Amino acid sequence: MIDDASLLVKDGKYWLYYKGRQLGKSPKETQMGLAIADKPQGPYVKVSNTPVIPKSRSLCLATR
Hints:
mainly beta; Glyco_hydro_beta-prop_sf; elongated; 4-stranded antiparallel beta sheet
């Protein structure tokens, strides 16, 4: 299950942060992932060192 996705543009790339967990897992097992694309419609490539924030329940992303 994936939800709470946030799309940011950084260095000309589209960074998609998302929160998710496997079906049947508890909310305590929710993790934050990241996938990056060259254009908004994708394809997105999952960053290999995910989860970027383990055991995440909520997050606010900000950029300068």
